[in-house]
C-alpha cells in the first residue's frame, strides 16, 4: 500500500485509491502515519483528534474510527483475526507499515540522500534525489491544522525548503545553471531571507554571462536583510560578491553525464557525419526512427556534441508536438539558424522562412515553392562548405505537411553537399505524409534509416548504474527490461520515482500511444490488458467478437503488440499493459474480466487459477459463485501438481470470501469447512504436521461445525480434526473425535471407514496401549485394502489414507516384531506409489526413520534420513527435511561421532519449532540414549527427566519405559530401571523389555 500525507491524504493499493472515510477518520489515519510503527495511546489520540477538547463519547467514537480504518486497510481480514496493519495494544494503537510506504518518510530519506550526495561531490545524483523527493509533495501536509502535529508539519515544510534549495544548488554545481535559473528566481523571490539560495542565484547568473544582474541580486538581498533584520549578509555571500566583482568565480562544473547504452548507434551516426564532412558530394540524410522515449533526441544530441567538438556547425529545428504547426515551421527555424552561420547569405526566395510566412504568400506562383526548395538546398550546401554541417530535424513526425514536402525534396539534393541531415521521428504508419517521407529517405542517394529499439540487458544495466550510482542487480535489470522494453525514458522515470507504481510521466507518454488505434482495436488492447499481458488470439476473438488478429495488425495497434508464440499476442512491454489497464473505468474493467472468464470457462485457454482471478475481479457483477467454484478447482489443480503454496493461496482467498456469511448460511459454513480442512491438510505438508498454522485452520474448522446444518456429512472434518489433535498431543480430544467418527460412518466409503480406527490406533500408540493400537490399525489396514487406487490418488497429500501402515510399523516394532514393522513400511511405500503420492513416499521414509530410532538401528536411520531430506527438499516439504536432519545427526552420534551431540540437539529442537507437539518424548528419548552411549550421563539424565515431564504433561506414554531406563542407568538408579521394565511389560513393549534386560 502507499500512504500519501504530503498534501490531501491519499491511500492506494496496487494503484487503486482506497477510501478511508470522512474528515475525522482521515485525520486519525494521518496522526497514526506521522507516528507510524510506534504505539500512540488512546488518550493522546483523543486529545490530538479533538484538539484538546474531546466530547464525552470520544473514546467510543475513536474505536468506531479504528474499526472502519481496519476494514478499509485490510479488507480480507477475518472478523476475529488480529490486525496486521492497524494493531491494537493495551491503551493504544499502532500503525505497522514499511517506512518506504509513506511519502513523508520517503521524502525525508530522499532529501537526506541528496544532501549526502552533494556533500560527497556528486551533484548529478544529488539533484536526482532532491527532485524525486520534491515530486512527492502535492500541497500542504494532511491534518496540518491539528495542534498535535504542527511541530511535525513545520519540520516537513522546512525540510521541503531545504530540499528545493539543495536541488537548485546541485543543478548549478552540475553545470545546469541555465536550466535552473527560472526556479532559482522564483525561490529567492518567495524566500528572500535564505542566503544560500541567493548565492546560488548569483552564481548561476554569473555563469550565464549576466554579471550585472548577479551583482544586483546581491544588492537586493543586502537591502532586505538590513531593513528586515538589521544585519549584513553572511561572510560566504560577501566573498562570492567579491569573486563576481573580480571575475574570480571558480570554474564551471563539467556537464552532466551523457548517452548510455547507445555506443554502437552513436558510432554509426558519427561515421555518417565523418563521411559527409570529408567527401565532396558525400552529404546524406539519416532518419532515426523509434517510439517515444526510446532516446532519439538524446542520441542526436550526442552526435551534435561530437560535431561541435570537431568544429562542425550544428543547427537544430524542432517540431512542436502540440497540434498543427504553421506552414514550414520546422524549416523556418533551420533557415534562420543557417543564415547566422558564416559563408551564407540571404536570398529573396528565403524571405518567407526568415519572416515566418509561407514562401507562396506573395501569390499563387507554382514555381515559387520549388524556388524556395532550391534556395534552402543551396543554403545547406553553402553552410556546409567550409567545415561540414550537422542539421538536426527533431520530432519530424509532428512536422507540418509543407515541412515534410521540403524534407522529401532535400533527399534528392543533400548528396551534393557536405551536410549530414539527421531526422528523428516516431514510426507513425498511420500518417501517409510521414510514410512517404520515410520511403524517400530509404531510397534517396546517401539516405538511410536507423531504427532504435529498446536497450538490451547490458544497456539497461548501464543506465541503471548511471542513474543510481552503483551496479545494478541482475534481477532488477531483468524486471526493468521486461517491464519497459528497454525504453530509456520509462527506465529513467521509474528509477526516479521507485515509490510510485506508475509515474504520471510514464502514464501520460503511454496514453498518447494508446490514442492511435481505432475503437475496435482499442477494445482488443483493453481485453489484452485485463488478461495480464498476453492472450490466445482465438480467446481474444471470442471475448471481443471481432477479428482480433486483423485489428491488432492495423495502424497504431501494431506498434504496441507483438507475437508471443503461435496464435498468441502480447504487449511489447509490461508498461503498455499496466497503463491500458489503469485507464479502464472500474465498471468496464469488471465487465471485461467477466467476459474473459466466461469465454475461457467455455472454450479453455486459461488455467483454473486465472479464471478464478477474473471472476474474482467481477464479483460485483454477480459472479461470486463462479469465483468460488473456480478458486477451489484451482487449488485442487495446484495440489495435484504438488504446488502446495499456490493451492494454499487459492484456498485462503476462498475462505476469506466465505467467512462473512458462515455464521448465517449453512451452505457457506459447510463450504468453508471443506476449504479449511483442505488448508489444514496442505499446511501439514508445507509448514509441519503440528504447526500453529495447522492449529489455526483446525480451530476455524471446529468453530464452523455447528453452523453447517444437520444434514451435512462431517466425517471428513472429524477425520482431519482428529489427526490435528494427535499431532498437537491432544490425545483425549483426538480419541473423542475418533469415536464420533466411528459412530458417524454410515456409507460404504472404505476410506472414511478406515479413518476412525486409524485415529484410535494412533491415540493408543502414543498413550502406550500397544495391543489396542495394533487391533485398531489392523482394522484400518483391512479397510484400506478395499479402496479403489483412483480414490487414493484423489487423497494425495492426506496422511490418514496411508499412515495406518506407518503407525502399525511403529507399534509392531515396539511389540518386538521388527520384520512385521519393515513389511508395513514397505506396504506404505507401495500404497504411495499406487496413488502417485509424493507426500506418502516421504511419509514412508519418515516412519522408517522413527522406527530406526525406536530400534537403535543406525544403518536404517542413515538411509531413512537421506530419503527424508531428498524428498522433502525436492517437494519443498520442510518438516521432512528437519526430521531427516535430526535422524542423520542421531545416527552419526550413535555410530561413534560424539562430536556431533550439539548438532543433534539443535536438529531435534528444530523438529518441534513450528508447533509439533506429538513425538516430543520419542525424540528426547533418542537424544538421551545417544548422550548415554557417548559417555555423557549427566546430560542423558537431564534429557530423560525432561522427556518424562513432557510425557506427564501431554499424556504421551509410549516411550516412558525407555526414558526410565536411560535415566536409571545415567544416575545408577536400579529402581528407575525396574520401573521402566514394569511400564514396558504393562504396555507389551517387548523391544524395550529386551533392551532393559541387556542392561
Automatic annotation (TrEMBL):
DNA-binding feature ranges: 1-97
Gene Ontology terms, MF aspect: DNA binding
InterPro entries (UniProt xref): AAA+_ATPase, AAA_16, AfsR-DnrI-RedD_regulator, BTAD, OmpR/PhoB-type_DNA-bd, P-loop_NTPase, Sig_transdc_resp-reg_C-effctor, TPR-like_helical_dom_sf
Keyword tags: DNA-binding, Transcription, Transcription regulation
GO biological process, alphabetically ordered: phosphorelay signal transduction system; regulation of DNA-templated transcription
Residues of the OmpR/PhoB-type domain: 1-97
Family the UniProt entry places it in: Belongs to the AfsR/DnrI/RedD regulatory family.
The name this protein goes by in its record: OmpR/PhoB-type domain-containing protein
Organism: Dactylosporangium siamense
Amino acid at each position: 500500500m502507499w500512504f500519501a500525507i504530503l498534501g490531501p491524504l491519499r491511500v492506494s493499493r496496487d494503484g487503486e485509491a482506497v477510501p478511508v472515510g470522512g474528515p475525522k477518520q482521515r485525520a486519525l489515519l494521518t496522526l497514526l502515519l506521522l507516528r507510524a510503527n510506534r504505539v500512540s495511546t488512546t488518550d493522546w489520540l483523543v486529545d490530538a483528534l479533538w484538539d484538546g477538547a474531546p466530547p464525552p463519547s470520544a473514546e467510543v467514537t475513536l474505536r468506531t474510527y479504528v474499526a472502519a480504518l481496519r476494514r478499509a486497510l485490510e479488507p480480507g481480514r477475518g472478523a476475529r483475526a488480529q490486525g496486521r496493519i492497524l494493531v491494537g495494544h493495551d491503551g493504544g494503537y499502532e500503525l505497522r507499515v514499511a517506512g518506504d510506504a509513506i511519502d513523508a518518510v520517503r521524502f525525508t530519506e530522499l532529501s537526506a540522500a541528496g544532501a549526502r550526495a552533494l556533500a560527497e561531490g556528486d551533484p548529478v545524483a544529488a539533484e536526482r534525489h532532491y527532485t524525486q523527493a520534491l515530486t512527492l509533495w502535492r500541497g500542504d501536509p494532511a491534518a496540518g491544522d491539528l495542534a498535535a502535529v504542527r511541530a511535525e508539519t513545520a519540520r516537513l515544510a522546512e525540510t521541503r525548503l531545504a530540499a528545493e534549495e539543495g536541488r537548485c544548488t546541485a543543478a548549478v554545481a552540475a553545470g545546469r545553471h541555465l536550466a535552473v535559473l527560472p526556479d532559482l528566481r522564483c525561490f529567492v523571490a518567495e524566500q528572500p531571507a535564505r542566503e544560500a539560495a541567493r548565492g546560488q542565484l548569483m552564481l548561476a547568473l554569473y555563469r550565464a554571462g549576466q554579471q550585472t544582474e548577479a551583482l544586483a541580486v546581491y544588492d537586493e538581498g543586502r537591502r532586505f536583510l538590513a531593513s528586515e533584520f538589521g544585519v549584513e549578509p553572511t561572510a560566504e555571500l560577501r566573498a562570492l560578491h567579491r569573486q563576481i566583482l573580480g571575475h574570480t568565480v571558480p570554474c564551471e562544473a563539467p556537464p552532466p553525464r551523457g548517452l548510455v547504452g547507445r555506443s554502437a548507434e552513436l558510432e554509426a551516426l558519427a561515421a555518417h557525419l565523418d563521411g559527409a564532412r570529408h567527401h565532396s558530394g558525400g552529404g546524406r540524410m539519416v532518419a532515426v526512427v523509434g517510439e517515444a522515449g526510446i532516446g532519439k533526441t538524446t542520441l542526436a544530441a550526442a552526435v551534435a556534441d561530437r560535431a561541435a567538438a570537431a568544429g562542425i556547425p550544428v543547427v537544430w529545428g524542432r517540431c512542436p508536438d502540440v497540434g498543427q504547426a504553421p506552414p514550414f515551421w520546422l524549416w523556418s527555424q533551420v533557415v534562420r539558424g543557417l543564415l547566422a552561420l558564416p559563408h551564407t547569405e540571404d536570398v529573396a526566395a528565403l524571405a518567407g522562412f526568415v519572416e515566418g510566412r509561407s514562401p507562396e504568400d506573395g501569390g499563387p506562383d507554382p514555381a515559387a515553392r520549388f524556388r524556395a526548395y532550391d534556395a534552402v538546398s543551396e543554403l545547406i550546401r553553402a553552410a556546409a562548405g567550409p567545415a561540414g554541417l550537422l542539421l538536426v530535424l527533431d520530432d519530424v513526425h509532428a512536422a507540418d505537411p509543407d515541412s515534410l514536402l521540403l524534407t522529401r525534396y532535400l533527399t534528392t539534393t543533400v548528396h551534393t553537399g557536405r551536410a549530414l541531415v539527421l531526422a528523428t521521428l516516431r514510426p507513425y504508419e498511420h500518417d501517409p505524409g510521414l510514410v512517404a517521407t520515410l520511403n524517400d529517405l530509404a531510397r534517396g542517394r546517401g539516405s538511410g534509416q536507423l531504427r532504435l529499439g529498446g536497450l538490451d540487458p547490458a544497456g539497461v544495466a548501464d543506465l541503471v548504474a548511471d542513474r543510481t550510482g552503483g551496479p545494478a542487480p541482475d534481477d532488477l535489470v531483468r524486471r526493468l527490461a521486461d517491464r519497459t522494453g528497454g525504453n530509456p525514458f520509462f527506465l529513467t522515470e521509474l528509477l526516479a520515482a521507485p515509490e510510485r507504481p506508475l509515474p504520471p510521466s510514464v502514464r501520460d507518454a503511454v496514453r498518447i500511444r494508446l490514442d492511435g488505434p481505432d475503437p475496435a482495436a482499442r477494445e482488443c488492447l483493453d481485453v489484452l490488458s485485463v488478461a495480464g499481458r498476453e492472450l490466445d488470439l482465438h480467446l481474444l476473438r471470442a471475448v471481443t467478437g471481432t477479428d482480433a488478429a486483423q485489428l491488432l495488425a492495423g495502424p497504431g495497434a501494431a506498434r504496441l503488440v507483438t507475437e508471443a508464440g503461435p496464435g498468441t499476442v502480447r504487449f511489447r512491454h509490461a508498461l503498455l499493459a499496466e497503463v491500458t489497464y489503469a485507464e479502464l473505468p472500474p465498471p468496464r474493467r469488471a465487465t471485461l474480466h467477466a467476459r474473459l472468464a466466461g469465454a475461457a470457462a467455455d472454450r479453455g485457454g486459461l488455467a483454473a487459477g486465472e479464471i478464478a482471478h477474473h471472476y474474482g475481479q467481477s464479483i460485483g457483477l454477480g459472479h461470486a459463485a463462479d469465483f468460488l467454484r473456480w478458486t477451489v478447482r484451482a487449488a485442487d489443480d495446484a495440489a495435484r501438481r504438488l504446488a502446495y503454496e499456490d493451492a494454499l493461496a487459492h484456498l485462503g482467498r476462498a475462505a476469506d470470501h466465505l467467512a462473512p456469511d458462515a455464521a448465517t448460511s449453512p451452505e457457506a459454513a459447510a463450504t468453508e469447512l471443506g476449504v479449511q480442512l483442505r488448508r489444514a491438510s496442505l499446511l501439514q505438508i508445507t509448514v509441519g504436521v503440528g504447526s500453529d498454522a495447522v492449529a489455526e485452520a483446525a480451530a476455524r474448522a471446529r468453530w464452523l461445525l455447528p453452523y453447517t446444518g444437520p444434514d451435512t456429512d462431517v466425517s471428513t472434518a472429524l477425520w482431519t480434526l482428529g489427526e490435528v489433535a494427535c499431532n498437537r498431543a491432544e490425545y483425549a480430544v483426538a480419541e473423542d473425535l475418533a469415536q464420533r467418527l466411528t459412530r458417524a460412518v454410515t456409507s460404504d466409503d472404505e476410506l472414511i471407514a478406515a479413518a476412525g480406527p486409524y485415529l484410535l490406533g494412533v491415540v493408543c500408540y502414543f498413550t502406550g496401549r500397544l495391543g489396542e493400537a495394533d487391533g485398531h490399525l489392523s482394522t484400518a489396514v483391512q479397510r484400506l485394502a478395499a479402496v479403489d487406487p483412483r480414490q487414493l490418488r484423489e487423497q494425495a497429500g492426506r496422511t490418514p489414507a496411508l499412515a495406518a501402515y506407518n503407525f502399525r510399523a511403529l507399534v509392531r516394532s515396539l511389540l518386538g516384531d521388527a520384520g512385521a514393522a519393515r513389511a508395513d513400511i514397505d506396504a506404505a511405500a507401495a500404497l504411495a506409489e499406487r496413488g502417485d503420492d509424493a507426500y506418502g513416499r516421504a511419509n514412508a521414509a519418515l516412519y522408517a526413520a522413527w522406527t530406526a530410532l525406536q530400534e537403535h538401528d543406525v544403518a536404517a536411520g542413515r538411509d531413512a534420513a537421506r530419503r527424508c531430506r531428498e524428498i522433502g527438499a525436492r517437494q519443498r516439504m520442510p518438516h521432512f527435511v528437519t526430521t531427516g536432519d535430526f535422524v542423520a545427526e542421531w545416527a552419526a552420534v550413535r555410530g561413534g561421532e560424539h562430536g556431533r551431540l550439539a548438532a543433534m540437539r539443535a536438529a531435534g529442537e528444530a523438529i518441534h519449532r513450528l508447533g509439533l507437539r506429538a513425538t516430543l518424548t520419542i525424540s528426547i528419548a533418542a537424544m538421551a540414549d545417544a548422550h548415554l552411549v557417548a559417555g555423557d550421563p549427566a546430560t542423558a539424565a537431564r534429557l530423560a527427566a525432561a522427556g518424562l515431564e513432557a510425557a506427564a504433561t501431554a499424556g504421551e506414554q509410549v516411550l516412558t519405559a525407555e526414558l526410565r531406563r536411560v535415566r536409571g542407568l545415567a544416575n545408577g538408579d536400579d529402581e528407575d530401571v525396574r520401573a521402566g521394565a514394569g511400564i514396558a511389560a504393562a504396555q507389551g513393549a517387548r523391544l524395550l523389555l529386551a533392551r532393559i534386560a541387556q542392561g
